[in-house]
Fe2OG dioxygenase domain-containing protein (Brassica oleracea var. oleracea), 357 residues
Amino acid sequence: MEETNKNVLGDCFTSAMALTESGVPHVPTRYILPPSQRPVLSPSIGTGSINLPVIDLSFLHDPLLRPSVIHEIEMACKEFGFFQVTNHGISSSVMRDALDAATRFFDLPSHEKMLLVSDDVHTPVRYGTSINHATDSVHYWRDFIKHYSHPLSKWINLWPSNPSCYKQKVRKYSEATHVLHKQLIEAISESLGLEKSYLQEEIEEGSQVMAVNCYPACPQPGIALGMPPHSDFSSLTILLQSSQGLQIKDKNNNWICVPYIEGALIVQLGDQVEVMSNGIYRSVVHRVTVNKDVNRLSFASLHSLPMNKKISPAPQLVNEDKPAAYGDFSFNDFLEYISRNDLTKQRFIDTVKKNKF
Ligand code: OGA
Ligand code: NI
């Protein structure tokens, strides 16, 4: 029996967690993907022989060794729009605490979580399932809570008060990722030949959305997904995961499994960096697979310019040979787009491109 709850809009709402807890032997029909979209889960096929980049950030602060780290970042951004980082300055206890707060939140009884349910993408703190349970044609095996995290003092009072440790633990992690993001954007600007401070002001006043995702153990991981293929609207997304599950698409359109590396964080380029770099770097297309055995958790910290600030190709990267390949867009434009369109049908970034094929 599915446990359903009516939300404020009167829609039926069943979380993936409730399905897992009820011990369903099969996923309900709405989760079944068309065969062409199903994941290949065999690790030998998924990972091939490709080594995804892992970059040690400890030398970023050493003036002599910084250029070699910047070079590694440039290579990773050009090849994948993706890399993992180690020695990133966020302690393992801060990461562990954040994951613990998330575990406790998703373990709450449904009626507690339903206090925060909303399918309006403009709601500053919202609990939900799938991408948008009210409109998704195929559902995804994922529950989430999303909230703004920067500036903290503006938003933290709206965060979940249950579990009681949530605010304190997630606060520490949010603040730490904000600092790391700033360092990464400086490095990425430098790797493009721009001033280190190119986006500094915008980032300082920028927005940060924390998407806390829960992918419960799924009885049929071969025919469902936790998240469909997409790229993030952000400048960068910093991702903390509790176990393996993320896949990225490489230049040859192959899906590559991202390995779980203890203590590492994942960095994904988002649409804002693609536009800013005038297409020298591309946002990474990624999706999430699910598994039979464990609940997987992740914190996707989506950093971006302020809500209404438009990003456009950096003037230094536009010239006669390489005219601006993108129009400009703001985070708000993206929210408007997703409240009206299905992201699995057309990527947002394709609507920003000047030459639409
Ligand atoms: C996201 C996302 C990946 C993951 O929240 O945008 O891509 O592994 N998450 O949860
Ligand atoms: Ni994403």
